[in-house]
Structure formats: C-alpha cells, structure tokens
C-alpha cells in the first residue's frame, strides 16, 4: 500500500512568507520555570528541530494572578540570551481578559500587543493571533486592529485562535493582508476541525493550522475512557512498528493530514521534547491513518 507524502522539514506559515518547523513548542505551562530551566527547555526544542514557539499573554494565569508570566519569563531569557530570539519564529496571542471576558476592540488589542512586546523585551513578534473571538467586536473593527499591528511593524503576520470557519471568513473579508493561521484544538480525540470545515477553509485559503492540545488534554498519554483507550491502542500499534513513542506517533498523525497541521507540544520535560524529532520520520499508509481516525470517532466510517 502506498504511503502518504512525508512531512517536509519546513513548511510555510500560511501566506506570511515565513517558514516554520512542522511541529511547535507551546508555553502555556512555561511560567513556573526559572530562567536557566526555561532556557534549557528552549534549547531542547531547537535540538529536536522546532523553530516555532507559541505563547500568549494569558499563559501563567492561575485563576487569580499570573497574567503575562509566561511572556515575562521568556523576556528574561531573551535578555540573558538574545541569540535565542533570532533563532525562533515567535508567536503570541491577546484578546482574553482574565478571568474570562474577551476584547478584540482596536484599543484593547493595541494595548495588549504593546504589553506583550514589553514583557517579551522585543520590538516585533512574527505572528500575533486573536486568542478567542470577541462576540461584541464587529469583525471590521478587529480587522483594523490587526492591520494596525502589521502597519506599525510590531507584527509580521496575523491569525486567529479558536475561531469558527465563519468567524474567520468574516474577519478575513475586512482585511487587506492575509489571515495566515487558525489555531484550533485538534487531536485524534478532538476531530472538530475536520468535521466543521476549518481544515477545508485553511487549505482553500492557504492558512497554517496550529493544533493545540494534540494529546487530547493528556487523555492520549493517560487514557481515561473507552475511546481514549482505543486511540492509545491504535497509536501503540504504530509505535511498535516504528520504535517511536505514543506521543510522537500522535503528533505525526496530526502532521500527516494534507492541511499540514502543526501540533503545539506543551511538555516541560526535556526528554519528552527530545522525542519530538521522532515525529518527523514516521511513514503512514492510508489504512493506518484511518485506523486512528476510526478509533477517535468511536464508530466506523460510513
């Protein structure tokens, strides 16, 4: 049986003109590390072939405090090791006000972006995404905020996170610059982007897809129900054939889809980060890939 096309070593970040690794490292649990440990984690990600690093202003918030802490830590690391910034494609996000209100108004997003740049100690980020859609902001207003971010040189490219395809389409219709990325939840246990048209829109519009929670919120690593156990068993069968870890197989499965979704890996364990390199080399047949899909669906294909 023929194999699916292998994942390239570098892929375009949508229409941004920026090339990135087909796997990313995320910093939603990064805030607790110190500068030395944080730098070691970043170096481990570079060593594993990662060039795309994903953070957000809300990362570090624990329900009462910590807003901005992940960006602050990264900024402290950049201050000690400026060369790290030059080696990475840096993405951050804004638009969530803790504990939950969303604000994508031009005034708030401009303020949030400036605050992120200050915490990071940089003049520009490569990708800035609206973290969650603000129902009370007209997409034309949100578009104005993103245009301004690029025009002022503070951002190279813009995208959206947790948007529906319809919300992304509405926003894009008011932009004169490309909307280069979607950032949805996606894993063998969360298949909504395949089912709701998001992947189709991304391929149609040449948008990158950054997949958060690629291990199903930990349920693939530690299965808790029949469906997660079925997915783990199917992944383990592939892992046994390839000598890779279950997690690396899960990332590779995500990367094999023709949308070339980029799994965002959040592990804070250097040994687990090192395993990411395995995901680049795992071959897939259609049958093997669909076996994982069926396990994740919990029912046979029609």
UniProtKB/TrEMBL annotation:
Specify the domain of life of the species encoding this protein: Bacteria
| Gene Ontology annotations for the cellular component aspect, listed alphabetically | cytosol
InterPro entries per UniProt: AKR (IPR020471), AKR_Detox_Biosynth (IPR050523), Aldo/ket_reductase_CS (IPR018170), NAD(P)_OxRdtase_dom_sf (IPR036812), NADP_OxRdtase_dom (IPR023210)
Which positions fall inside the NADP-dependent oxidoreductase domain? Answer: 23-291
One Gene Ontology molecular-function label: oxidoreductase activity
Pfam families in the record: Aldo_ket_red
Q: What is this protein called?
A: Putative oxidoreductase
Question: Could you read off the lineage of the organism from its UniProt record?
Answer: Bacteria, Pseudomonadati, Pseudomonadota, Alphaproteobacteria, Sphingomonadales
């Amino acid at each position: 049986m023929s194999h699916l096309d292998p994942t390239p070593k570098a892929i375009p970040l949508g229409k941004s003109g920026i090339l990135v690794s087909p796997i990313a490292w995320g910093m939603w649990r990064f805030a607790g590390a110190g500068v030395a440990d944080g730098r070691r984690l970043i170096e481990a990600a570079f060593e594993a072939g990662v060039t795309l690093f994903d953070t957000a202003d809300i990362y570090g918030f624990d329900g009462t405090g910590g807003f901005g802490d992940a960006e602050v830590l990264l900024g402290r690391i950049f201050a000690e090791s400026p060369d790290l910034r030059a080696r990475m494609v840096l993405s951050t996000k804004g638009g969530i006000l803790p504990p939950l209100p969303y604000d994508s108004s031009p005034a708030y997003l401009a303020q949030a972006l400036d605050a992120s740049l200050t915490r990071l100690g940089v003049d520009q980020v490569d990708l800035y995404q609206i973290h969650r859609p603000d129902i009370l902001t007209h997409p034309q207003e949100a578009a104005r905020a993103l245009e301004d971010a690029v025009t002022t040189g503070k951002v190279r490219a813009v995208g959206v996170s947790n948007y529906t395809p319809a919300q992304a389409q509405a926003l894009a219709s008011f932009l004169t610059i490309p909307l280069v990325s979607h950032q949805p939840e996606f894993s063998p246990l969360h298949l909504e982007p395949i089912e709701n048209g998001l992947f189709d829109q991304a391929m149609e519009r040449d948008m990158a897809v950054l997949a958060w929670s690629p291990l199903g919120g930990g349920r693939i690593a530690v299965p808790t129900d029949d469906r997660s156990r079925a997915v783990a068993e199917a992944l383990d069968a592939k892992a046994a054939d390839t000598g890779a870890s279950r997690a690396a197989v899960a990332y590779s499965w995500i990367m094999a889809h023709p949308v070339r979704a980029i799994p965002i890996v959040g592990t804070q364990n250097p040994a687990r980060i090192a395993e990411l390199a395995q995901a680049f080399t795992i071959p897939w047949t259609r049958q093997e890939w669909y076996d994982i899909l069926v396990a994740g669906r919990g029912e046979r294909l029609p």
